[in-house]
Amino acid sequence: MDKDGDIYFVEGKYKKSETDENGFSTGYSLYKYALKNSDKSEITKANTYYISDGKLYFTRLCPKTDTVRLFIAPLSDPQNVKDTGIDVGSQISENTPYMYYPADGDVYYSNGENKLYRYNEDNEKSDTVCTFKDKSFVRYFQYFNNTMIVLVREPNDNGKMYQYVLYYLDNDNKPQKIIDDAKLNEKYFYGYEYIDYMTIFNNCEDYFLLSTYDPDADTAAYLVDKDFKLHKFISNGEWDYDTYAERRADLEERES
To answer: How many CB atoms neighbour CB 162 within 10 A?
Structure first.
């Protein structure tokens, strides 16, 4: 919702056969709903969107090439569309997460690889900001206190399994580890806790939120402060090891 009381949302249904003359899917559209008069109007064909500095950033699916293309248009003139030529991942066959994030005339994006890219809107060129481990992929990224935070899924130290790792990029755009799944699970005897997602709040310079889950459907949330220290905020279904040990001992005594 914007300050004028207009609500933006995507609505539709994907059908592979429904495409425009350029091969992009027409199944989903971006709409604007005005609260003051209950008017709903279609803005453009899109399956995801982001609004920043009076510009509309949005994607369209191309079923034939199995790609997701990024477009930019003025919010005041959404039909004046610029095709960036950037494919930000595949949502169809590989279910690859696609991400893009505009900031100060650049668009940071990932296409399901182990690289974070930056597209300059003025010269319409892209460069590589950072490269992570082989066989990894960038899942999520956003600025926090003028520092880029990146969540990456990558092979663990033995290379046999995968884990999530949270990084920040230093002044030279080198990744510096904040925490990974292995560190998060040092205290566990049973189960395994995974980094799931992060949420960075607008106009909040003190902390951002990191959420986790494990296969037993236990969830937790941590506040990450300016120094990238974690503070547990809330947990659901956290295992009580002391109680478990007491009940197990009681059961064994009864069985004997």
So the answer is: 15
Q: Which of 118, 152, 119, 116 is nearest to 135 (CA)?
A: 152
pTM: 0.81
Phi first, then psi: what are they for 32, rounded to 5°? Answer: -120, 130
Contact 126, 184 (CB under 8 A): no
Handedness of CA 26, 28, 33, 38 (dihedral sign): positive
Q: How far is CA 98 from the centre of its chain?
A: 8
Q: Is-contact 70 57, C-beta < 8 A?
A: yes
What is residue 19's DSSP assignment? B
DSSP state of 27: S
Give a three-class secondary structure readout of 144-158: ECCEEEEEEEEECCC
Phi, psi of 252 (to 5 degrees): -65, -35
Contact 150, 141 (CB under 8 A): yes
- Contact between residue 60 and residue 24 where contact means Cβ atoms under 8 Å apart: yes
- Residues 248, 220: Cα–Cα separation, whole Å: 25
Q: Which of 180, 183, 184, 190 is nearest to 237 (CA)?
A: 190
- Dihedral of the CA atoms 235, 239, 241, 244 (nearest 10)? 140
Tokens of 174: 């080198």
Alpha-carbon torsion 89, 91, 96, 101, what sign?
positive
pLDDT digits (tens, 9 = 90+) for 219-242: 778 899 999 999 877 766 555 555
